[in-house]
């Protein structure tokens, strides 16, 4: 944004008669923000993939069933939870 302001100030870019350098500086800021976000996508994805195994139990990922709290017998046997190892309180 500072470079764009300098280019407008020195006459390399024409200033808008009504708004001055604001539209060009704003566009430069938006493009810079977008390019910065796009360049960081791979780093962010690699961080989430490194935590993939740890975050599964916390409700992350496409395989997580948000409605099942592993309280039914079918879910307990499917996920290998025994009655003693379950952290859910009993309903009886």
Automatic annotation (TrEMBL):
Residues 1-52 form the OCIA domain. Coiled coil: none annotated. It comes from the Eukaryota. InterPro entries: OCAD1/2, OCIA_dom. PANTHER family: OCIA DOMAIN-CONTAINING PROTEIN 2, OVARIAN CARCINOMA IMMUNOREACTIVE ANTIGEN. This is OCIA domain-containing protein 2 isoform X3. It comes from Balaenoptera acutorostrata. The gene is OCIAD2.
């Amino acid at each position: 944004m500072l470079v764009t302001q300098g280019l407008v100030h020195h006459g390399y870019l024409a200033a808008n008669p009504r708004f001055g350098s604001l539209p060009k500086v704003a566009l430069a800021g938006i493009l810079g923000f977008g390019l910065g976000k796009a360049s960081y996508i791979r780093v962010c994805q690699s961080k989430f993939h490194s935590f993939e195994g740890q975050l599964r139990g916390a409700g992350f990922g496409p395989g997580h069933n948000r409605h099942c709290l592993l309280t039914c017998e079918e879910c307990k046997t499917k996920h290998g939870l025994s009655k003693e190892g379950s952290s859910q309180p009993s309903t009886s």
